[in-house]
Specification:
The chain is 20% helix and 22% strand. The chain has 115 residues and is an alpha+beta fold. It has one domain: HIT family, subunit A. The protein has a five-stranded antiparallel beta sheet, covered by helices on one side. It binds guanosine-5'-monophosphate (5GP) and zinc ion (ZN).
């Protein structure tokens, strides 16, 4: 997708701090981190979100790399959270499938009130 910011990051057309990369996926630091560890893991190929008929093998590969990202970021022992905001109600703002890997502090239990 030519106007997709994460496609551009995957193609190396927009700079990002890359944490991990292989043929199928890339992980990079969130530009506006919400917690000390805030890394985004995406497939290089464009899918709008997790409901966008993503091939199971690709989804499997993507999720199989979560633990490695956590190790690389030093939160595999302390713990972390993964989040995939999806669609309007899910408050997805970048419409290229991505998994947030969040950690580096004891995360709050509550999701907070709806607004
Ligand atoms: P969403 O709200 O769609 O789940 O998350 C999108 C995330 O992408 C946000 O946390 C936002 O800070 C991050 N983001 C948006 N644009 C860029 C960018 O150009 N570079 C990087 N590294 N992160 C971005
Ligand atoms: Zn894209």
């Amino acid at each position: 997708m030519s106007d997709c910011i994460f496609c551009k990051i995957a193609a190396g057309e927009i700079p990002a701090t890359v944490v991990y990369e292989d043929d199928l996926v890339i992980a990079f630091e969130d530009a506006n981190p919400q917690v000390p560890v805030h890394t985004l893991l995406i497939p290089k190929q464009h899918y709008a979100n997790i409901s966008d008929d993503v091939p199971p093998e690709l989804l499997g590969h993507l999720f199989s790399k979560v633990g490695e990202i956590a190790r690389l970021k030093g939160v595999d022992k302390t713990g972390f959270r993964i989040v995939a905001n999806t669609g309007e109600d899910g408050r997805q703002t970048v419409h290229h499938l991505h998994i947030h890997v969040l950690g580096g502090l004891r995360l709050p239990i509550s999701m907070g009130p709806a607004d």
